[in-house]
């Protein structure tokens, strides 16, 4: 039986797109839902174009984080996995207590280095020659759960931040679907 998954994203959704269009993944999972915390984000149309249901919310419409997380949990409680792909909110301990299944995150740094925002720029500005990405399990710490897989590129002489950023996205688009594929195949 195919696994049922949700993807959480806040922005452009290039990773969402790669996951949704991966023919290997289509055989083993169905994306039942996109959760997005930014009304108007480009990722929403990407989901709609593919006939994927969306749950879009604005945090300001809720009294507390627990309130909107409750609404999300209601939507995902029967799904087997959650994949965070550029979702810019921290999953709280409350969420983790109420959704006990696997949640993965993609983070554009070689964790444990450069947790949080602007990780690529942080690594670039620090002069790192090797800049990479991590896919990890989500726990209650920001970008803190066990790392599953990492990969990196070597910054070229005089390479701009823009070029490094584009190449990092290229690594993400390859690695995230591959890790998801391996994870689900093991569970089938
Ligand atoms: C990616 O760089 C991801 O690593 C980070 O947010 C970005 C999302 O990009 N967490 P996109 O929306 O998938 O294009």
TrEMBL record:
All residue ranges annotated as the Formyl transferase N-terminal domain in the record: 3-180
Name this polypeptide is given: Phosphoribosylglycinamide formyltransferase
Positions bearing the site annotation: Raises pKa of active site His: 143
Residues involved in N(1)-(5-phospho-beta-D-ribosyl)glycinamide binding: 13-15
Record-annotated membrane-spanning stretches: none
Active site: 107
Pathway(s) annotated for this protein in UniProt: Purine metabolism; IMP biosynthesis via de novo pathway; N(2)-formyl-N(1)-(5-phospho-D-ribosyl)glycinamide from N(1)-(5-phospho-D-ribosyl)glycinamide (10-formyl THF route): step 1/1
GO function term, MF aspect, one: phosphoribosylglycinamide formyltransferase activity
Organism for this UniProt entry: Gemella sanguinis
Gene name, Swiss-Prot/TrEMBL: purN
Top EC class for this record: transferase
Organism lineage: Bacteria, Bacillati, Bacillota, Bacilli, Bacillales
Job description of the protein: Catalyzes the transfer of a formyl group from 10-formyltetrahydrofolate to 5-phospho-ribosyl-glycinamide (GAR), producing 5-phospho-ribosyl-N-formylglycinamide (FGAR) and tetrahydrofolate.
InterPro entries, alphabetized: Formyl_transf_N (IPR002376), Formyl_transf_N_sf (IPR036477), GART (IPR004607), GART_AS (IPR001555)
Keywords of the record: Purine biosynthesis, Transferase
């Amino acid at each position: 039986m195919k696994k049922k998954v949700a993807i959480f994203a806040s922005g452009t959704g290039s990773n969402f797109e790669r996951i949704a269009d991966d023919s290997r993944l289509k055989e083993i999972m169905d994306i039942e839902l996109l959760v997005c915390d930014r009304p108007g984000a480009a990722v929403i149309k990407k989901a709609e174009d593919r006939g994927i249901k969306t749950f879009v919310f604005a945090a300001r419409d809720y009294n507390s984080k627990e309130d909107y997380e409750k609404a999300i949990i209601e939507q995902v409680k029967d799904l087997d996995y959650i994949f965070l792909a550029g979702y810019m909110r921290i999953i709280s301990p409350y969420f983790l207590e109420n959704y006990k299944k696997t949640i993965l995150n993609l983070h554009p740094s070689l964790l444990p280095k450069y947790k949080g925002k602007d990780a690529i720029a942080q690594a670039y500005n620090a002069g790192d020659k090797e800049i990479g990405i991590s896919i990890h399990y989500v726990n209650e710490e920001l970008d803190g759960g066990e790392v599953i897989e990492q990969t990196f590129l070597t910054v070229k002489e005089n390479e701009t931040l823009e070029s490094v950023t584009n190449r990092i996205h290229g690594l993400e688009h390859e690695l995230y679907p591959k890790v998801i594929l391996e994870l689900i195949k093991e569970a089938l």
